[in-house]
Amino acid sequence: EVLTEDPETAFCTLANREDLNSEEGSVCQCLYQFTRNETLTETNKLLCDVCTQRHYGRKKNIKSENKYVYTNAKKQMLISLAPPVLTLHLKRFQHAGFNLRKVNKHIKFPEVIDLAPFCTAKCKNVAEGNTRVLYSLYGVVEHSGTMRSGHYTAYAKVRSMNNHLSDLVLRGQPPQALETEPVKGQWFHISDTHVQAVSASKVLSSQAYLLFYERLL
Protein backbone atom coordinates (compact mmCIF):
# COMPACT_ATOMS: atom_id res chain seq x y z
CA GLU A 1 0.00 0.00 0.00
CA VAL A 2 1.39 3.36 -1.07
CA LEU A 3 0.49 6.32 1.14
CA THR A 4 1.02 9.97 0.31
CA GLU A 5 2.54 11.72 3.32
CA ASP A 6 3.00 15.40 3.94
CA PRO A 7 6.66 16.05 2.97
CA GLU A 8 6.99 18.37 5.96
CA THR A 9 6.05 15.67 8.51
CA ALA A 10 6.99 12.43 6.72
CA PHE A 11 10.41 12.31 8.42
CA CYS A 12 9.40 13.90 11.73
CA THR A 13 9.72 12.04 15.03
CA LEU A 14 7.97 12.38 18.42
CA ALA A 15 11.14 13.81 19.97
CA ASN A 16 14.04 15.75 18.49
CA ARG A 17 16.75 13.31 17.37
CA GLU A 18 19.40 16.02 17.53
CA ASP A 19 18.98 16.28 21.31
CA LEU A 20 19.61 12.53 21.70
CA ASN A 21 22.71 11.59 23.66
CA SER A 22 23.72 8.57 21.55
CA GLU A 23 26.83 7.47 23.42
CA GLU A 24 29.41 5.50 21.47
CA GLY A 25 28.87 1.73 21.81
CA SER A 26 25.36 2.05 23.21
CA VAL A 27 21.92 0.69 22.31
CA CYS A 28 20.75 4.27 21.68
CA GLN A 29 23.52 4.74 19.12
CA CYS A 30 22.50 1.46 17.44
CA LEU A 31 18.88 2.63 17.21
CA TYR A 32 19.97 6.04 15.93
CA GLN A 33 22.04 4.45 13.15
CA PHE A 34 19.27 1.98 12.25
CA THR A 35 16.70 4.78 11.92
CA ARG A 36 18.90 7.35 10.22
CA ASN A 37 17.77 9.14 7.07
CA GLU A 38 19.16 7.53 3.90
CA THR A 39 19.42 8.95 0.37
CA LEU A 40 18.65 6.54 -2.47
CA THR A 41 20.59 7.46 -5.61
CA GLU A 42 22.25 5.85 -8.65
CA THR A 43 21.61 2.07 -8.57
CA ASN A 44 19.45 2.48 -5.46
CA LYS A 45 16.95 4.86 -7.07
CA LEU A 46 13.27 4.32 -6.35
CA LEU A 47 10.85 3.15 -9.04
CA CYS A 48 8.25 5.93 -9.24
CA ASP A 49 4.83 5.10 -10.71
CA VAL A 50 3.82 8.77 -10.74
CA CYS A 51 6.97 9.77 -12.62
CA THR A 52 6.48 6.87 -15.06
CA GLN A 53 2.89 7.92 -15.83
CA ARG A 54 3.95 11.55 -16.14
CA HIS A 55 6.69 10.61 -18.64
CA TYR A 56 4.92 7.94 -20.70
CA GLY A 57 1.28 8.83 -20.07
CA ARG A 58 -1.41 6.50 -18.69
CA LYS A 59 -0.80 3.63 -21.13
CA LYS A 60 -1.95 0.17 -20.14
CA ASN A 61 1.07 -1.59 -21.68
CA ILE A 62 3.78 0.40 -19.90
CA LYS A 63 4.63 -2.41 -17.50
CA SER A 64 4.58 -5.05 -20.23
CA GLU A 65 7.07 -2.93 -22.18
CA ASN A 66 9.27 -2.57 -19.07
CA LYS A 67 9.12 1.20 -19.23
CA TYR A 68 9.87 2.63 -15.81
CA VAL A 69 11.20 5.89 -14.44
CA TYR A 70 13.47 5.79 -11.39
CA THR A 71 14.06 8.79 -9.16
CA ASN A 72 16.22 9.86 -6.23
CA ALA A 73 14.46 9.40 -2.90
CA LYS A 74 14.85 9.56 0.86
CA LYS A 75 14.27 6.56 3.12
CA GLN A 76 13.92 6.31 6.88
CA MET A 77 12.86 3.41 9.10
CA LEU A 78 10.77 4.64 12.06
CA ILE A 79 8.48 2.96 14.59
CA SER A 80 4.80 3.50 13.73
CA LEU A 81 3.33 1.42 16.57
CA ALA A 82 4.96 1.40 20.02
CA PRO A 83 4.85 -2.21 21.29
CA PRO A 84 3.75 -3.18 24.82
CA VAL A 85 6.94 -5.23 25.15
CA LEU A 86 10.11 -4.12 23.38
CA THR A 87 12.58 -6.87 22.41
CA LEU A 88 16.00 -5.83 21.12
CA HIS A 89 18.21 -8.46 19.48
CA LEU A 90 21.87 -7.46 19.28
CA LYS A 91 23.82 -8.92 16.36
CA ARG A 92 26.85 -10.50 18.02
CA PHE A 93 28.64 -11.93 15.01
CA GLN A 94 30.57 -10.54 12.08
CA HIS A 95 32.07 -11.96 8.90
CA ALA A 96 35.81 -12.63 8.96
CA GLY A 97 36.56 -13.82 5.44
CA PHE A 98 34.52 -16.97 4.95
CA ASN A 99 34.05 -17.45 8.67
CA LEU A 100 31.86 -15.93 11.35
CA ARG A 101 33.38 -14.38 14.44
CA LYS A 102 31.60 -13.55 17.67
CA VAL A 103 31.52 -9.91 18.78
CA ASN A 104 32.32 -9.71 22.51
CA LYS A 105 32.21 -5.90 22.76
CA HIS A 106 30.12 -4.58 25.65
CA ILE A 107 27.08 -2.63 24.44
CA LYS A 108 25.76 -0.14 26.97
CA PHE A 109 22.03 -0.30 27.64
CA PRO A 110 19.90 1.70 30.11
CA GLU A 111 17.34 0.60 32.68
CA VAL A 112 14.87 3.06 31.14
CA ILE A 113 14.92 3.79 27.41
CA ASP A 114 12.98 6.42 25.48
CA LEU A 115 11.85 5.37 21.99
CA ALA A 116 10.34 8.77 21.10
CA PRO A 117 13.34 9.87 18.94
CA PHE A 118 12.83 6.71 16.87
CA CYS A 119 9.01 6.91 16.54
CA THR A 120 7.10 8.63 13.77
CA ALA A 121 5.32 11.82 14.78
CA LYS A 122 2.01 10.03 14.14
CA CYS A 123 2.96 6.96 16.17
CA LYS A 124 -0.08 4.90 17.14
CA ASN A 125 -1.03 4.06 20.76
CA VAL A 126 0.83 7.08 22.12
CA ALA A 127 -1.35 9.53 24.05
CA GLU A 128 -1.76 12.90 22.36
CA GLY A 129 0.79 15.42 23.55
CA ASN A 130 3.27 12.81 24.82
CA THR A 131 6.81 13.38 23.62
CA ARG A 132 8.25 10.38 25.46
CA VAL A 133 7.75 6.64 24.94
CA LEU A 134 9.43 5.07 27.96
CA TYR A 135 10.32 1.42 28.60
CA SER A 136 11.74 -0.28 31.70
CA LEU A 137 14.23 -3.15 31.47
CA TYR A 138 13.03 -6.44 32.97
CA GLY A 139 15.03 -9.18 31.23
CA VAL A 140 18.42 -9.85 29.62
CA VAL A 141 19.77 -12.92 27.82
CA GLU A 142 23.54 -13.31 27.77
CA HIS A 143 25.72 -15.72 25.76
CA SER A 144 29.18 -16.82 26.81
CA GLY A 145 31.54 -18.79 24.61
CA THR A 146 32.26 -18.80 20.88
CA MET A 147 30.30 -19.20 17.65
CA ARG A 148 30.84 -22.98 17.86
CA SER A 149 29.91 -23.55 21.48
CA GLY A 150 28.76 -21.64 24.52
CA HIS A 151 26.17 -21.21 27.22
CA TYR A 152 23.06 -19.04 27.56
CA THR A 153 22.13 -17.44 30.88
CA ALA A 154 19.49 -14.87 31.78
CA TYR A 155 18.80 -11.98 34.12
CA ALA A 156 15.19 -11.41 35.17
CA LYS A 157 13.59 -8.83 37.42
CA VAL A 158 10.91 -9.95 39.90
CA ARG A 159 8.46 -7.05 40.11
CA SER A 160 4.82 -6.21 40.74
CA MET A 161 2.24 -6.53 37.97
CA ASN A 162 2.02 -3.64 35.51
CA ASN A 163 -1.75 -3.08 35.14
CA HIS A 164 -1.26 -0.34 32.55
CA LEU A 165 0.69 -2.80 30.40
CA SER A 166 -2.22 -5.26 30.64
CA ASP A 167 -4.63 -2.54 29.48
CA LEU A 168 -2.39 -1.83 26.51
CA VAL A 169 -2.13 -5.50 25.52
CA LEU A 170 -5.77 -6.46 26.10
CA ARG A 171 -7.62 -3.25 25.25
CA GLY A 172 -5.15 -1.22 23.20
CA GLN A 173 -5.34 1.67 25.65
CA PRO A 174 -2.08 3.67 25.68
CA PRO A 175 -0.79 4.71 29.12
CA GLN A 176 -1.58 8.33 29.97
CA ALA A 177 0.89 9.01 32.78
CA LEU A 178 3.15 6.60 34.64
CA GLU A 179 6.32 6.57 36.67
CA THR A 180 9.36 7.51 34.64
CA GLU A 181 11.73 5.59 36.92
CA PRO A 182 12.63 1.89 36.45
CA VAL A 183 10.04 -0.54 37.75
CA LYS A 184 11.14 -1.53 41.27
CA GLY A 185 12.10 -5.15 41.86
CA GLN A 186 14.89 -7.63 42.55
CA TRP A 187 17.17 -8.88 39.79
CA PHE A 188 18.14 -12.56 39.59
CA HIS A 189 20.74 -14.36 37.51
CA ILE A 190 19.54 -17.72 36.13
CA SER A 191 21.98 -20.33 34.81
CA ASP A 192 20.29 -23.71 34.28
CA THR A 193 19.05 -24.69 37.76
CA HIS A 194 21.19 -22.11 39.60
CA VAL A 195 19.42 -18.87 40.59
CA GLN A 196 21.16 -16.05 42.43
CA ALA A 197 20.08 -12.52 43.44
CA VAL A 198 22.25 -9.82 41.81
CA SER A 199 22.45 -6.03 41.69
CA ALA A 200 21.24 -3.84 38.83
CA SER A 201 24.84 -2.79 38.15
CA LYS A 202 25.75 -6.44 37.57
CA VAL A 203 22.95 -6.71 35.01
CA LEU A 204 23.96 -3.52 33.20
CA SER A 205 27.55 -4.76 32.86
CA SER A 206 26.53 -8.02 31.16
CA GLN A 207 27.25 -8.90 27.52
CA ALA A 208 23.63 -8.60 26.42
CA TYR A 209 22.38 -10.66 23.49
CA LEU A 210 18.66 -10.05 23.98
CA LEU A 211 17.05 -7.17 25.88
CA PHE A 212 13.45 -7.10 27.11
CA TYR A 213 11.69 -3.86 28.07
CA GLU A 214 8.10 -3.23 29.24
CA ARG A 215 6.15 -0.08 28.38
CA LEU A 216 6.00 2.65 31.02
CA LEU A 217 4.71 5.74 29.24
Automatic annotation (TrEMBL):
GO biological process terms, alphabetically, are: protein deubiquitination
Q: Which SUPFAM superfamilies match?
A: Cysteine proteinases
Any Pfam family matching the protein: UCH
Specify the USP domain's residue ranges: 1-216
Keyword Hydrolase carried by entry: yes
- Its Gene Ontology molecular function terms? cysteine-type deubiquitinase activity
Keyword Hydrolase set for record = yes
Q: Which InterPro entries match?
A: Papain-like_cys_pep_sf, Peptidase_C19, Peptidase_C19_UCH, USP, USP_CS
Q: Which domain of life is it from?
A: Eukaryota
A single GO cellular-component term from the record reads: cytosol
Signal peptide annotation: none
Which keywords are on file for this protein?
Hydrolase
Name of the protein:
UBP16 hydrolase
* Gene that specifies this protein: Usp16_1
